[in-house]
């Protein structure tokens, strides 16, 4: 297993953009662990599996009907040989993913798949909600990126072309679900660099993260 850098934080905090650029800068793979939950949620929706049917969801999690693939630019998701990467970003898929992520058996089913991303590579940047606390608790470098709820709602609304007020309401629900779930709740990993990006430019955030990473990896 190569060295691991984790970047966690709430939805639309900017962690995906930063982690992707960091992986590109270090010339190592990047993975969004949330894609596993979104991919499973999308597959469940397509197969008309109820989000309360834990048994069928667990079976689907271990099936070959869908898969996650790492690339330098994206964490790709395939469903029945179709590239559905762009489709899993839809808000209804995100809400479904948040729902099924509460189930311990689902998280356990996906955990080994997520951890296997660090095998056979010199290093990995892993982005998500619990990368530094659960997926890679022994990671060499941990970062937690956040921003005000208003800033995050505005950013997400612009990405999806939706109403900011409506997005703020949906995001509040997601934040509450992620931070209060009994299994692997969203929280700051021990020893992590914490950055509030509300008043920061992308360049400022990236430079600060890169500086922190360089310092950690040199020690």
Structural class: alpha/beta
The largest pleated sheet is described as:
5 strands, parallel
Radius of gyration: 16 Å
Strand composition percent: 15-25%
- Coarse morphology: globular
CATH class: Alpha Beta
**Strand order in the largest sheet:** 2-6-1-7-8
**Total domains:** 1
User: Judging by the overall fold, what is the CATH architecture?
Assistant: 3-Layer(aba) Sandwich
Number of strands: 8
Distance between the termini: 19 Å
Explain this structure to me?
This protein has 219 residues and is α/β, with parallel strands linked by helices. It has one domain: Rossmann fold (3-Layer(aba) Sandwich). Helix content is 48%, strand content 17%. The chain is built from 9 helices and 8 strands. It has a 5-stranded parallel β-sheet with strand order 2-6-1-7-8. Strands 3-4-5 form a 3-stranded antiparallel β-sheet, with helices on one face. α3 (54-61) runs parallel beside α5 and α7 (149-160) packs across α8 (164-180). The protein starts with a strand and ends with a helix. The mean pLDDT is 89.
């Amino acid at each position: 297993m190569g060295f691991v850098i984790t970047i966690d934080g709430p939805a639309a905090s900017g962690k995906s953009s930063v982690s992707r650029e960091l992986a590109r800068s270090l010339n190592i793979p990047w993975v969004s662990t949330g894609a596993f939950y979104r991919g499973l949620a999308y597959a469940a929706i397509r197969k008309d599996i109820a989000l309360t049917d834990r048994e069928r969801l667990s079976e689907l999690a271990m099936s070959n009907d869908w898969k996650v693939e790492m690339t330098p630019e994206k964490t790709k998701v395939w469903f029945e040989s179709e590239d559905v990467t762009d489709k899993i970003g839809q808000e209804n898929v995100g809400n479904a993913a948040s729902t099924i992520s509460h189930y311990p058996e689902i998280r356990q089913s996906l955990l080994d798949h997520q951890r296997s991303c660090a095998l056979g590579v010199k290093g990995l940047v892993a982005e998500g909600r619990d990368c530094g606390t659960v997926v890679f608790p022994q990671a060499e470098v941990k970062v937690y990126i956040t921003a005000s709820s208003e800033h995050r709602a505005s950013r997400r609304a612009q990405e999806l072309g939706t109403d900011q007020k409506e997005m703020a309401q949906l995001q509040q629900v997601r934040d509450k679900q992620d931070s209060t779930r009994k299994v692997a709740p969203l929280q700051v990993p021990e020893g992590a660099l914490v950055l509030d990006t509300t008043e920061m430019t992308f360049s400022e955030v990236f430079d600060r993260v890169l500086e922190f990473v360089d310092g950690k990896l040199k020690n």
